[in-house]
């Protein structure tokens, strides 16, 4: 079975632009979470979606939004990009919405904002 | 809010050395505790977990015990291998989300 897949793997944008990152969870997994990992730090929770509904939101500005589709794939959108948004964006899937569930992570999308 | 503090790296060991990576947590409730590992070029993988006090998680020779009295979840391995070189993240989950420590980079030399 395929693992969690994310696209694109790398992305370069300029300040003020908008970006959309995509994630396909493991087959059968209904929960998708998004994390931001700045270089040298641990992942920071952005969103969790379960059954197409937002179940959790971290401490990120409204420029960050996400959604989950009927096939459980997900998109993360970031508007009005800032230099500080440069990071590795990780998607993780799990079978249900419990926060102590084992998370399966993708390899991430490396976003560089110039 | 809940948080995790882990030992700063990097840590460099010789093959077959004993490994300890310290992790302490702050939580208002009774979180579950995890160690995730990130090998070069890969996503994070769950290494082990413990869901209540005194539980011991173990996997691939790694162990960690959930110590409520010291609010700790230290990672140990008796004999490391070159293939254990990676970044290790301590994490906790509470009612709302999963929180990660900053990560500890381990390099094992032959």
What does this entry look like structurally?
Chain A is an all-beta fold. The model of chain A has no long low-confidence stretch (mean pLDDT 93). Chain A has strands at residues 5-7, 10-13, 19-24, 31-37, 44-50, 53-57, 64-68, 74-78, 87-94, 104-105, 109-113. In chain A, strand 4 (31-37) and strand 5 (44-50) form a beta hairpin. The radius of gyration of chain A is 13 Å and the shape is globular. Chain A has no helices and 11 strands. In chain A, the strands form 2 sheets. In chain A, strands 2, 4, 5, 6, 9, 10 and 11 form a 7-stranded mixed β-sheet that branches. In chain A, strands 1-3-8-7 form a 4-stranded antiparallel β-sheet, with no helix packed on it. By secondary structure, chain B is an all-beta fold. Helices cover 0% and strands 52% of the residues of chain B. Chain B has no helices and 12 strands. Chain B has strands spanning 3-6, 11-14, 19-21, 23-26, 32-38, 44-50, 56-59, 62-65, 75-77, 86-93, 98-100, 104-109. In chain B, strands 2, 5, 6, 10, 11 and 12 form a 6-stranded mixed β-sheet that branches. A 4-stranded antiparallel β-sheet of chain B has the order 3-9-8-7, with no helix packed on it. In chain B, a hairpin with a 4-residue loop joins strand 10 and strand 11 (98-100). Chain B is globular. The interface between A and B is medium-sized, with 24 and 25 residues.
- Compressed to H and E, one letter per element, the order of chain A equals EEEEEEEEEEE
Biggest sheet descriptor of chain A: 7 strands, mixed
Q: What structural category do the secondary elements of chain B indicate?
A: mainly beta
Separation, N- and C-terminal Cα atoms of chain B? 41 Å
What's the number of extended β-strand segments of chain A?
Answer: 11
Mean pLDDT reading of chain A: 93
């Amino acid at each position: 079975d395929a693992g969690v897949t994310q696209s694109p793997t790398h992305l370069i944008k300029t300040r003020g632009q908008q970006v959309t990152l995509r994630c396909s969870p493991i087959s059968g997994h209904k929960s998708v979470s998004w994390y931001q990992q700045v270089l040298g730090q641990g992942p920071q929770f952005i969103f969790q979606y379960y059954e197409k509904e937002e179940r959790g939101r971290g401490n990120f500005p409204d420029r960050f939004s996400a959604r989950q589709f009927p096939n459980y794939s997900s998109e993360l959108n970031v508007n009005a990009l800032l230099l500080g948004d440069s990071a590795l964006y990780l998607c993780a899937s799990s079978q249900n919405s419990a926060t102590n569930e084992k998370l399966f992570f993708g390899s991430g999308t490396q976003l560089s904002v110039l | 809010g809940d948080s995790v503090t882990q030992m700063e790296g990097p840590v460099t060991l010789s093959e077959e050395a004993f490994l300890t990576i310290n992790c302490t947590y702050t939580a208002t409730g009774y979180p579950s505790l995890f160690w995730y590992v990130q090998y070069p070029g890969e996503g994070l993988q769950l290494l082990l977990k413990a869901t209540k006090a005194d539980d011991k998680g173990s996997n691939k020779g790694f162990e960690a015990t959930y110590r409520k009295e010291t609010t700790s979840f230290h990672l140990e391995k008796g004999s490391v291998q070159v293939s254990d070189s990676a970044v290790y993240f301590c994490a906790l989950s509470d009612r709302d989300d999963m929180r990660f420590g900053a990560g500890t980079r381990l390099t094992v030399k032959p």
